[in-house]
Amino acid sequence: MSQLRYGPRPVADTTDGEVPNREVAATKIGAWSTSLTATFLTDPEVIAAVLPPPLEPPAEPMVKVSISRVDLGGGRAPFGAGTFAVAARHRDTEGYYPLLMPMTTEQAVIGGRETFGEPKKLADITLETVPEQSSGSAVRGLVTRMGVGIIELDGTLGDELDPPPSGERLDYYLKFLRDPGGAGFDDDPWLVYCTRETETRSHRAANVALTLRESRFDPVADIPILGPVTATLSERRSQQTGRLVERVPAADVLPYAHQRYDDVSPVDTRK
Questions:
Q1: Does the pLDDT of residue 77 top 90, yes or no?
Q2: Residue ranges of domains in the chain, CATH in brackets
Q3: Among 25, 149, 230, 254, fewest CB within 10 Å belongs to which?
Q4: How many CB atoms lie within 10 A of CB 14?
């Protein structure tokens, strides 16, 4: 009989007998990506309202939006990735809490959600630059989910900038699974610190308009844009490390669990 691929696999390639986690290994590759990133200030009360405990509002109510094309190399097709995150803090640390991380491939979604607790969802993502004779290069990034272009960045590229120094950035995730019996979670969630060591090889200013469109599945339009939008187009790569920090009472997180899931139930729960 030929090898049964659903059968057990050897773990001899590890030193401790543990089954290797390919999702964690994939985050160490350090693939280069082209990212159109925008930041803007919003209402501090909005930031406070979307942050689950134990996260707290930051000193500056910042929102970060990125639309990326990730080049895996080796002849493999690139995939699209995005982030819609609000600034947050925990104890003496400051970072971002993503409300949405759209991805174009199932592999990127499942690995990130199951291993790190990332709020990933499948989406259509495009990022393109088009040279224009009169005004330099146009740039456009679009995230489309459930038939709606929920996030759009559209504008022109500006001057080349000095790449920012290599360094770490911190994201917060809440890792949980729903109870198959239907009663909340199967255990108290974990607060996860995800640290990314990032290197940038090109960095360019961008003058863009940011549009957040209405969608009942992804209510990014509820986050008001207050003040100017600052944007850049960068080529960068990062390697991430996740760490379980502390358990969070399920009752604290359950009211925010809807942030991660699309309500496509045929049962109308509205009263």
A1: no
A2: 22-168+202-239 (2.40.400.10)
A3: 25
A4: 11
Residues sharing a CB contact under 8 Å with residue 216, sequence separation 6 or more, in sequence order: 263
Q: What is the tens place of the pLDDT at every residue in 22-48?
A: 555 555 556 899 999 999 999 999 999
Alpha-carbon distances, residue 199 vs 143, 157, 162 (angstroms): 25, 21, 12
List pLDDT tens digits, range 90-116.
999 999 999 999 999 999 999 899 999
Give the separation between CA 247 and CA 245, rounded to whole angstroms: 7
How far, CA to CA in Å, does 127 sit from each of 3, 48, 88?
Answer: 42, 31, 27
User: What are the start-end ranges of the E strands in 14-53?
Assistant: 32-41
Q: Distance between CA 71 and CA 173 in Å, rounded? A: 25
**CA–CA dist 215, 148 (Å, integer):** 7
- Assessment of whether the complete model's pTM goes beyond 0.70: yes
Spatial CA neighbour of 58 closest among 96, 84, 101: 96
Upstream peptide bond of 54 is cis (omega within 30 degrees of 0)? yes
Burial group, residue 221, by CB count within 10 angstroms (0-12, 13-18, 19+): middle
Burial of residue 68, with CB atoms counted within 10 A of its CB: 0-12 exposed, 13-18 middle, 19 or more buried: buried
Beta pairing class for 190-212 and 93-103: unpaired
